[in-house]
Amino acid sequence: MTTPQSDIGLIGLAVMGENVALNIESRGYPISVFNRTTAKVDAFMNGRGKGKKFFGAHTLEEFVASLKKPRKVFMLVKAGQAVDELIDQLIPLCEPGDILIDGGNSHFPDTIRRTQYVESKGLLYIGTGVSGGEEGALKGPSLMPGGSPAAWPHVKEIFQAICARTPDGEPCCDWIGENGAGHFVKMVHNGIEYGDMQMICETYDLMKRGLGMTNEEMHDVFAEWNKGELDSYLIEITRDVLGYKDEEGKAVVDIILDAAGQKGTGKWTVVAALDDGMPLTLIGEAVFARCLSAIKEERVTASQEIKPKVKKFSGDKAKFVNDLRAALYASKIVSYAQGYQLMRAAARTYKWNLNYGGIALVWRGGCIIRSAFLGDIKKAFKRNPNLVNLLLDKFFKKAVSSRQAAWRRVVVKSAQLGIPTPCIGSALAYFDGYRSDRLPANLLQGLRDYFGAHTYERVDKPRGQAFHTNWTGHGGTTTSQTYTV
Questions:
Q1: What per-residue confidence (pLDDT) applies to 6?
Q2: Counting beta carbons within 10 angstroms of the beta carbon of residue 434, is it exposed (0 to 12), middle (13 to 18) or buried (19 or more)?
Q3: What is the pTM of this model?
């Protein structure tokens, strides 16, 4: 019988699992490790884990027996069926009060279901977002745990020991909420990540094809931007990618095929927004931009059939680069405003008690979207915990308004040059739509009532009353039975 010796156990020794395990051990916690392919356990124990406080198990039974109670099992396996299968293998080996932790990129409805299932067996469950990539996993990721609230006190110390820290030393990890809340917030994080990257790429495209700037010139611009309001991990690595050359002296960015991949979290974010009726337009455009890039061969054929022509830029290039910075910052505000609207809607739908300022703090370090900007979001929710939209906060309202003219110049110029800016353009359209007290949906409702008797409301009557017009004179008075606002 194995003597319990480890404070926590980790299953799954791929890149992320290995690095999280090393991170935990480096903070002083003895840890057990297991992998379905046991040769990986031996390789780890004889390699990066040699001479450290690790216990390498060759069976799940041995692994579970090595853990102190309540047992804490951190699973870092492929999202989907593999998680369900592992849970079913672990439950008979565990005891009431033991805690199963899923640190993969699981879809939040799966985490809601698994929390209920595991709790029904007397155990506790955590689904935690882990952001920061390979380096973050090793040195300090952003952690977004949700699930069984009773589990949090048992893992809080370890989680907050291994996570990233803000410049002020605050841990980038806090309890997010019940059941699937942690994985939902991680999903929104990834959606915002999609939007941030696409907006950076649109800015790069305008610089490269529009202004004819060299990689070196763009490298210098992003390096300068990273010292100011756009200070962030993604701007920082954009600078580095633009400046990187291979052993032959070639710029690597120029030899990368322009076909983007995706793993699905951006799509999940957009689907969740559609389910909750939230206008997540910018992230939606970012997902579709990747889809468009992926049909490379079709685009090449179209470019030969419908000759593209990027017009030559005329004007003050330095001034336009400043406009690009302003447009990128204003659009970024819209992206986060939409993301927070989605989280607020989901909190109502799933009855989560989300701490919006706390989420900004969790994202402040360790994760891919970490930026100085997130400190301003935390302050906004500290000023008003019930803030409906970031655009209504005094700081962000002023930030967007003061950049509005430059933002419009960028969108107009991109259209004139023939260079697409789907995210930056959609952000401006959302901004204009959100602050419009009247939109053309009155005509839309008239059209719906005309062809489908879907009814409409009137501006001179209380909300909720349905009206129908017999537009043709022979349509009758029968109306549709459902009316959704």
A1: 96
A2: middle
A3: 0.92
